[in-house]
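Lesson 9: reading folded outputs for more than one chain in a single document. The general rule is that every protein is listed as its sequence immediately followed by its C-alpha cells, and records are never interleaved. Here is the first one.
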Amino acid sequence: MKFAASLVVAFAFAPLAYAQQQGDVTNCTIWEWDKTVDGYIEQYPPRRVSAGETCTGSRNCAISASGVEMYDWTKNVSGLPYGYFQAVQAGLDEEQSGQEWSFNDSVLGTIENIMELSPGTSAYMNFSALRYCYVGTTQNCTGAVENRTRVEVCEPMYRSTQTGEDDDDYVLIMGGSYVLVNISREEVDDYDDPYANLVRSGAASAWYNEAFVAAVVGLSWFLLL
C-alpha cells in the first residue's frame, strides 16, 4: 500500500467532521485575507515521537523516531467549523488574482529522526511541527461569530520527497524541530514507542496503521448502504 493512498484515506474524514459540526457552530462562508499582515511561522504543541531510552554504555547511544503524524489546520476562533478551511482556500485564491494557491487543511506526514543520548542518561524525543499562518476576517456569517471577526488560520508545513520513479512514490516530511526530554531511568518503561502499531509499507518511511485502514474501509461501506 502506497503512502499516497494512506493520505487519501485519512483525508476522507475531513468532510465527515465538517458535516457533523454544521448543526451547532457558526456558518461563515467568506474569509478575507488581510495582506497588510505578512505570513508567519508558528509551532504546533510538541508531540512525543519515540520510546523512552537509557544509554547504558560508555559511548553515546542512538535514539530514533520513525512513523507518521496527522496535523490539521488551526484557527483561533473556536466557533468556526473545520470546513471553514474551504473559505480560507477561496480567499487566498481570490487575493492571488486567480492563481492556484494551496491551503492544506490536513497533512499526514512522516516523522524520521535520530539523535544521541549521552552515557548514563535517559530521555525520549519530542517533535514540534511547523505551521504557516495568515490573518484575515470573517464575512457572511450566521450564528455566534460576527462579520469582520479577526481570525488567524494556519496550515501544516511539509516537503515532498520522491522515493521512486512513479508519481505516487513519495513521502511527505513534516517541517519542525526535534528535542530530547530527559527522564529518570525508572521512568523509561512508562514511555512506549508511539508508532508500535504502525506497519512499514513499501518505500522507505511509508507507514500505515492496519487497524485504522480497516476501520475506514468499513465506514465507507456503511455510508454507501
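And here is the second record, again sequence then C-alpha cells.
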Amino acid sequence: MKKMFLTLLMLGFCFGLYAQHRYINVNEVGVLVYGTGSEEAGFTALTAHGFRYKAGIEFLGTTGAEKYQFDRVNTVWMLPISLGGNYVLKPAQRSSFFAGLQLGYGFAFLPKTESNWTASGGLKVNPQVGWRWKLGRRSLLQTAIGYQTQRVELKQKGAQQLQMDSYIPGFGSEVVAWERNVLMERLSLRLGFGF
C-alpha cells in the first residue's frame, strides 16, 4: 500500500511539473439515455483533468459519479475512473469539432433499499464526438454525444427457497441464488465547461 501511494505521489509530482502550462480541466454533466422512456434514464457528472500534448491532442484522467437505472425498478451508482483522450480538429479556431475516447473501470454501489443484493463494477468504454467553443483565452464550453457501455455484476446475498412444484407438478423445492451480469449500454448526452 505504501509503495502504491508513493508511486501515485511521484506520478502526480511529475505530471504537475510537465503540465504547468498545458493543464486542462473539463467538468461535464449529462444524461445516460436508454430507450425512449424516461424511467430508465440515468445521470452523469464527471470531472476530467489532464494536459494538452500537442495542439489538438489531449490526454485526460476522469472520475465522477453516474447513476444507472438498469431496469424499471433497480438503480446502481457507479464511481468511474478512466483514462482517455480527445482530438480537437481545429484547435486554433473559435469553435471546432472534437472526438474522444475514455477507457476505465467503474466501481458499483447500490442504494440501501437494495439490501439483499451486492454489486461489483466492471469495464467502462465511452467513445464520443462533439463540438467545442472557446469562451476566452483558456476557458471552453462543449457538448458531446457518445455511446457508453458499463459492465456491472449483481449478486443476491444468500439464497432463496424456490417452490418448484408450483411451476412443475411433482417437483419439490430448490435453493436458488440469483446472479445478473449486466452490460449497460447507454447514449450519453453531456454539456461541459473547462479551462
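What the second record shows: The first helix runs from residue 2 to 18.
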